[in-house]
Every structure is written in structure tokens, then in C-alpha cells.
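$ run holo --ligand "tryptophan" --emit C-alpha cells
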Amino acid sequence: MKHPQRQHAIWGHRGTFILAATGSAVGLGNIWKFPYVAGENGGGAFVLLYLLGIVLVGVPIMVAEVLMGRRARANPIGAVGAVSAESGRSPLWSAIGWCGVITAFLILSYYSVVAGWTLEYVKAAVTGQFAGQSGEQAGAVFSALLADPYRLVLWQSVFIAMTAIVLAFGVTRGLETTVRVLMPLLFVLLLVMLGYAVQVGDFGAAVRFLFSFNVSDLSWAKASVALGHSFFTLSLAMGAIMAYGSYMPKRASIGKTVFAVAGLDTLVALVAGLAIFPIVFATAGIEPGEGPGLMYISLPVAFGSMPAGVLFGSVFFVLVTLAAWSSTISLLEPLVAYINERFGLARPLATLAIAFAAWLLGLGTVLSFNVWEGQQWLLGRNFFGLLDFFTINVMLPLGGLLMAIFVGWRVLPRYSRLELRQEPAWMYNAWLWALRYLAPPAVLVIMIASIYAELAP
Ligand code: TRP
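-- output --
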């Protein structure tokens, strides 16, 4: 294929795609959301459904996304257009790229607000503020943070600035260098936390909670939540993985790489669960089904009452910050690459402009936790509620569905086979089959179920 941008960067090291894509995938979704969603949905049965979602639907779609990025060597919008043209299809398919890039920008605007909270908690942990906190006190501290728009804007600004700095330095000098330091550090910190949890927590209770289940616990509602979460946690359908794939060397095997990324992402989610639940179960008065406050309310209480809680509380919140940071980087990259390649705007300028726009939009999310909290914009939701619903429940599955249909049915197999030439024939066939017959109906089901669940009650 002829490449529209001759200047498109390529990663300098073989392993960088794995680190960068894992950095994108591992984020608040793994450490904050997965444990509490698993907790709310009763543990084991949910975990099983989530694993099935990753393997049967997430992995095939991720392969499709990397394949498009690498084939075209362009930003997501240019990439889908070029792949479509090569197979003689309509230019309208590049709408997939548009949807993804815009949704990534919308997610970035609120993700960086939530990620900012973890910076406040790093500060609180380091200065020993968790010591002796009761559940009520911890709850009050969290509510006070959300009620204070100035503090939220401060941390949101710091977080966006951290993200922008990395991308302003470019793909290899900024992004590649950062993930090569960040990801190993993140894995080490996670293992430290696991060791701590085994030492001071109730590890057996956590293992039973996460891995044992009754067949009667399985339900369609859980399947839809689990599948939706497996999309979010793998960073699918937003152009993020496609953008990273576009920097991938030709010789690397996409299949092996994607298995590594999905495997690491899943491992981190499970290990995060195994690091958090022992601490939760060992602390009186805290429930695993706590909900979104699990990380910001329950864990401070637990750290505040445990040996070396200041040290390990700090390690934990630094870990979450790093994980969220490598995810926001991947949410900003697709649009930066597009503006840079399409309009020739220098990378630092493009980064600055988009980071500023995301910051501005993020103010709406900041206000949604205080001044605008009770305001209903649509469907009984405030600004943040609406943005969250629209991106996660509508755009994410829609993007995945369109990608599966496009690469499964519209891209000529001889081109997809060429990008997957390192894979044995049976694997290619299994992939194509899953992309054609498994992914679209599965995604349709979650989409309809989650929209119905949101609109009906
Ligand atoms: N996967 C990340 C997490 O689990 C979030 C994320 C980063 C994301 N980039 C994305 C989600 C792109 C969807 C699309 O926290």
C-alpha cells in the first residue's frame, strides 16, 4: 500500500508497542473500576464473563484495529480511509476513525478529572492523612474533594499538563521513552502491593471472592456489563490502539503482540483485585460491593489502620496515577497525530491546542460534581453523567461493531491476510470467523442491553 505520510514514525524497539498498548489498556479501568464492578456483581461469575469477553470479542477486534493502523501507517482517520480505499470501499468508512478520535477526546476530558483525584490521594497518603480514619471520615474527605471545584481544576490541570508534555516530545522521544520507564515501574509497584496484601490481608477470602462462583450467578445483565468493561479496559474502538499500531514495525506478529497486551491487561486487573480485596476483607465494616468509593473511601480506611500504611498507601496511589497517566496519553495521541498529519501543524502546537480544548471541556465534568450536580441536561443526567453514558455505552460498542463489520466483511481478506502473514492459517481463519460471526452480535446485544437498562428504569 502507498503511504500518505512518508514521515510517519516507527517505534525504535521491538517491545514498545506492547508496553505502549498495555499502558493504554491498564488504567483506572483495571485498578479502580474492575475491582468495584466485580464487587458489585458478586465476584467469580462476573470475572468469568469478563474473561470470555476479552478472549472471544476483545482480542479479535483489537487485532482488527492494530491491523488497520499498521497497514496504513497513518492516524486513525487517515488509516481507515486508506484501508477502505485499498479494498475499493466507500470513503464513508472513515467515519469509524472520526467516531473513535472524537470519542477518545471526550473520554480524555473527564478521565483526566477522575485521574486528578488520585493525585490528591497521593498527597494525602504521603502526608499520613489516612491514619486512624473511620469509614465516615474517609467518606466526608472524599465528598469534600468533589465539592471543591478549585481543587478539582488544579489536579485536572496538572494531569492534562503531564499528559501533554509527553506527547509534545513526539512519538519516539516522548511516548516511547516514557512508557519504557513507566510500565516496568508500574509492574514492580503492583507486585509490591500484592506482597503487602498477602502479608497483612485476608488473601484466602479474596481468592474465593474473585474465583469461585455458582452457575446460577450467571446472567445476561452481568454478561453485558462484563463485555462492556472488557472493551473499555482494552482501550478498544477509540483509535488509540490503531494509532499505536501505526508505529509498529512490519516484521512484528500482530497476533502474538495482541495476546501479550490482552494478557497483561487481564493479569493487572486480576492482580489489582488480589491486592485490594485482601485489604478490604481484613478491615472490619467494609464491604466488597462498596461501589465507586471502593478505592477512594475503603482503601484509605484500610491503609489508615494497617502496619506501614503510609508507605504502602503512597505506593498504591502512585501506582494508580502512573496507570492513569499512560492511559490519558493514549487518549490524546490519536487526535494529535491527526492534526499533525492532516494540517501539518507541529506536534508540540497540536498537542497544546488539543490538551487545552480537553481541559476546557473537562471543566464541565469538574462542575458536575458540585455546582451542576443536580442539573439534569438530558435523560435525568448531568453533564458528566451524559458524557459518560454517551461515550461508554453508545460510542464504544458502536465503534467496535463498525470495526468488526468493516474489517471482517469489507476489507478484502487478501489484505488482512497480508498483515497477519506471521500467523498460522488456522489462527487467521479463527480470527476472521470470530470477527464476522461472534463479535457483531455480541456487541449488538451489549449495546441494546445497556441502552435499555439506562433508559428503562
Ligand atoms: N483502558 C483504559 C482503562 O482501563 C482507559 C482507556 C485508555 C481507554 N484509552 C482508551 C478506553 C481508549 C477506551 C478507549 O482505564
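-- notes --
The mean pLDDT is 90.
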